[in-house]
Write a structure and sequence with these properties.
The protein is built from 13 helices and no strands. By secondary structure, it is mainly alpha-helical. Helix 5 runs parallel beside helix 8. The protein is globular and about 80 Å long.
Length: about 325
C-alpha cells in the first residue's frame, strides 16, 4: 500500500509539474503576443512628436493636391495647364475667374501649381528609387564581400563624391535636354554614391552576426543572405535616408528647371514656373510667391517627417 501510495503521489506531482509548465508556457506566449513589435513602438514614438505629425498631415495634403490635378482642372478652375488667355494675363488672385491669378501668358496659376507639383514630386520620387537601387546594390555587394571588390567600388564612390553634383547635372542637362523621367535617372546616376557608402557601413556591421553565419552554415547563397537576411535589417536606415533625400531632389529639380536645364516648358514644374515668373515679379509678385512657397513648405514638411522618423526608428530610444 505504501509503495502504491508513493506511485500515486509521484504521478500527481508529475501531472502538477506538467500543468504548471504548460501554464507558464501559455503565459510566456501571451506576454510575447502582447509585447509590441519594433515598428509598433516606433509608431508610438512618432505619434508623440506633434511637429512631425502636423508635417506628415501637410505632406499628405500636398500629395493629394498634386495627385488630383486633373479633377482640380476640370471641376474647380475650369482651365488646363497650357490654356492661354493673353487678354487676362497677370491677373491677380480672384480676378477674371482665376483663383490664384494668371501668369504672363494668361495661364491659370492654381492649375499649373497642381500639375507642376506632380512633375516635381514624380522626378524626386523616381530619382530616389533609382538612386536606392543603384547605391543599395553597390553598397550591399561592397560591404558583404569586402576585399578587392570593396576597395574597387569604394574608390569609384570616392571619385563620384569628389565631383560637385549640381555642376555635373548642369553639364548633362545642357548636353541631352532631358524630359522628367530621364532627368530623374540623371539625378540618380550622379547621386548614388552617398547611399552606397551609407549602406556599405550598415552591411559591414551586420555581415558577421550570428544569424548571418547560421544562414551560411545551412547553405544559403550570398545573394539570398544579402537580400533576405541583411537588407531587411537596414530598412529603418533606408526609410530615414529616403525621407531626407526626397526634399534635396525636389530642390535639385527646381534649380535645374529654373536654369532652363530641367523640365522643359510648356510642361509645368515648380522650378520652371519660377523661371517664367521672374520677369513679372514687380508687376504681380504672387506669380513668384506661390511656386516658391510650395517648394519651401514641401521641403520643410518632408524634412520634419524625416527627423521624426529618425527619432522614432532609433533603437536606442525606449518607450
Amino acid at each position: 500500500m505504501t509503495q502504491q501510495s508513493d506511485v500515486i503521489t509521484g504521478s500527481t506531482a508529475a501531472v502538477d509539474a506538467a500543468s504548471e509548465a504548460r501554464t507558464a508556457g501559455a503565459l510566456e506566449r501571451a506576454k510575447l503576443r502582447s509585447t509590441p513589435g519594433f515598428y509598433t513602438r516606433a509608431w508610438r514614438r512618432f505619434r508623440r512628436n506633434k511637429v512631425a505629425l502636423v508635417a506628415l498631415f501637410l505632406t499628405f495634403c500636398i500629395v493629394m493636391f498634386v495627385a488630383t490635378a486633373g479633377l482640380l482642372s476640370e471641376y474647380v478652375t475650369g482651365f488646363s495647364y497650357s490654356e492661354n488667355h493673353l487678354g487676362t494675363k497677370l491677373s491677380r488672385p480672384g480676378e477674371n475667374g482665376y483663383i490664384l491669378g494668371s501668369d504672363g501668358n494668361g495661364r491659370d496659376i492654381l492649375t499649373r501649381l497642381a500639375y507642376g507639383g506632380r512633375v516635381s514630386l514624380l522626378v524626386a520620387f523616381l530619382a530616389t528609387i533609382s538612386t536606392l537601387i543603384i547605391g543599395g546594390t553597390v553598397g550591399s555587394v561592397s560591404g558583404y564581400f569586402g576585399g578587392f571588390i570593396d576597395t574597387t567600388m569604394m574608390r569609384l564612390v570616392d571619385v563620384l563624391l569628389s565631383i560637385p553634383t549640381l555642376s555635373l547635372l548642369i553639364l548633362i542637362s545642357a548636353l541631352y535636354h532631358p524630359g522628367y523621367v530621364s532627368l530623374a535617372l540623371f539625378i540618380a546616376v550622379v547621386s548614388w554614391a552617398g547611399v552606397a557608402r551609407l549602406i556599405r557601413g550598415e552591411v559591414l556591421s551586420l555581415r558577421n552576426r550570428d544569424y548571418v553565419d547560421a544562414a551560411r552554415v545551412i547553405g544559403a547563397s550570398n545573394g539570398r543572405i544579402i537580400w533576405r537576411h541583411i537588407f531587411p535589417n537596414i530598412i529603418p536606415t533606408i526609410v530615414v535616408w529616403t525621407s531626407l533625400v526626397i526634399p534635396a531632389f525636389i530642390v535639385t529639380e527646381a534649380a535645374l528647371s529654373f536654369l532652363g536645364l530641367g523640365v522643359r516648358i510648356p510642361t509645368p514644374s515648380w522650378g520652371n514656373m519660377l523661371q517664367e515668373a521672374q520677369p513679372f515679379y514687380t508687376k504681380n509678385w504672387t506669380n513668384v510667391f506661390f511656386p516658391g512657397f510650395l517648394i519651401y513648405i514641401t521641403v520643410l514638411c518632408i524634412n520634419l517627417v524625416g527627423n521624426g522618423l529618425r527619432d522614432a526608428l532609433d533603437p536606442r530610444l525606449s518607450d
